[in-house]
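no rush on this but wanted to send it before i forget. what follows is a protein written twice so to speak, once as letters and once as structure tokens for the fold. mainly i need to know what kind of three dimensional shape the backbone takes. thanks a lot i owe you, the record is right below.
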Amino acid sequence: MKKLLVLMTVSIVVLGTSCKKKGCTDPLAVNYSTEAKKDDASCTYESTFSVWWSEAGSTFLVNDNATTLYLHVDGALQGSAATNVFMTGGNFDCGAGLIESTFDLGLNTSKIISYVIKDQTDFTYSSGSYTLDANCNKLELVF
């Protein structure tokens, strides 16, 4: 009888722990699962890169005869925006920036990109490297 009780207890413990649902447990991941209890290294990430400028930046650009700014990342055009449009602060949700692009990071939580921001005459206003982290990244252009 004692052996049966021990066997039943061991069976319950083994079955109880082996039934944990596997999946992505990182809430920053695109495929995050609230049901997953054990991480299976399947998390995938993306990052949104938002470029914006203030009213003072807009005034500077318009006075400099720039009508449109173009964002290039790693040599590829990502988007553009009119320079007479501006934002009043950097406290905004991704999806509301002046020029935005979303990047697939795969299984990585960050990626280093090279960006160039040019106007309609191909004049470069800003360029550099930027480390994208999973989710939202904001770059304010200051002139």
